[in-house]
Design goal:
Helix 2 packs antiparallel against helix 3. It contains 5 helices and no strands. The protein is 71% helix and 0% strand. With 178 residues, the protein is mainly alpha-helical. The protein is elongated, with a radius of gyration of 20 Å.
């Protein structure tokens, strides 16, 4: 097989997998755990946590970072494995699809676990602190909504894409947020 044919098969597989995903209508679904974790230190300061809340926060933050590091490492290994498989003479796209399905399922389970950990922290907050958190999430949703509209536009030549194609630049399956 030529490199061009392998590339076309890769795109066909990606399109087939994208077609099976449910349509996500709300910007909340585009929030990524990694983005929210980057905001955690500032939020922690703003919340003025008591000692018990602070201990719970630190434990949750540590577990969250460990989970996200492991997920990133796992996805890098998956990317390398997929690239090698696609370059092989006897590429089996169904097997690759099964691996991607397993990764997507793992990602969903991790997102649920992250939400549970952080909802436990939220349960430990007082009403004023909870309002601050809700306000931050609402603000982040607005940023995602504004940025999401830009991401859905076709990429032009200046962005590294073809003027005839939409950008398929999101290659992080299951990367929705907490």
């Amino acid at each position: 097989m030529t490199f061009a044919l392998l590339r076309h098969l890769k795109y066909a597989l990606a399109l087939a997998l994208l077609a099976t995903l449910p349509a996500l209508a709300t910007p909340l679904m585009e929030m990524r755990a990694e983005d929210l974790m980057a905001m955690a230190p500032d939020l922690k300061k703003a919340l003025a946590l008591n000692p018990n809340q602070l201990l719970l926060w630190q434990q949750t933050e540590s577990k969250s970072h460990a989970l996200l590091r492991e997920r990133q490492s796992r996805r890098e290994r998956l990317q390398a494995h997929s690239k090698t498989a696609l370059e092989g003479a006897n590429v089996e796209l169904r097997e690759l699809g099964a691996v991607l399905d397993a990764e997507a399922a793992s990602g969903l389970a991790e997102e649920k676990q992250l939400r549970e950990w952080w909802l436990t922290v939220n349960d430990a907050l007082d009403e004023n602190q909870r309002r601050m958190v809700a306000s931050l999430v609402a603000e982040q949703m607005m940023k995602v909504a504004d940025g999401g509209a830009q991401r859905s536009q076709p990429r032009g030549k200046e962005d590294g894409g073809s003027p005839r194609r939409g950008g398929m630049g999101r290659n992080k399956p299951g990367s929705s947020g907490m």
